[in-house]
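I trust your eye. Have a critical look at both lines of this record:
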Amino acid sequence: MTKTINQIQDEIIKEFELFDNWEDRYEHLINLGQELPPLPKKLKTEDTLVPGCQSKVWLHISSQNATLHLQGQSDALITSGLLALILRIFNNQPPKEIQNAELYFIDRIKLAEHLSQTRANGLYSIIQRIKDYTIKC
């Protein structure tokens, strides 16, 4: 059974609570990003490049069996970790659930407070790209 968006967010919050400081949390983010499977070269196109990100972020979105399937990659360590979190939350979820999702984990783990403005903008650009895609479904 697929976990709900909120169940996954709650798991992420609990994971980040295990770390005492932001240095350890950044290290965890980097590790998450390094675990992302590489995006096939043929999917790294101008169409999959997410605008508004300081680093390069490619996001491939498809739908199958009434759920979204997401693959992505970034050329930056922290951004890869952010991408890994978002993919973990939204992958294999129905478009309607994604449209209506409130991503409360960002505030609860104080993520936005510890990102540069350009990284925070990139994070929200990734989220917006996915939500925009759900409108087409």
Observations:
- Residues 117-136 form the longest helix (20 residues).
- The beta strands are 57-64, 67-74.
- The chain has one domain: 5-136.
